[in-house]
Amino acid sequence: MPTSDARPAPAPKPFVGRMALPTIVDRKYRVERFLGLTGPRALYEVRAVVDEGRLMLHLLERDEPSSVRTPLFGEEDKLAVELCVAGAMRSMHIVPVIDRGMLVGGERYVVTEWSGEETLAGLLRERCRLPAREVSPIVLDVLAGLADLHVAGITHGALSPQRVALSTSPPRVLAMLTDRGQFPLGIEEPDASAAGYTAPEVAAGGPVTPMSDVYSVGAILFRAVTGWHPGARNVMPPGSEPPLDPEFAKILGRAMSREVGGRYPGVEALREALAGWLGGLERVDSLLASFLEEPVAACSPSRRVS
Question: Suppose 219 and one of 76, 98, 197, 223 were both cysteines; which one would form an S-S bond, judging by CB atoms 3.0 to 4.6 Å apart?
Answer without folding.
Answer: 197
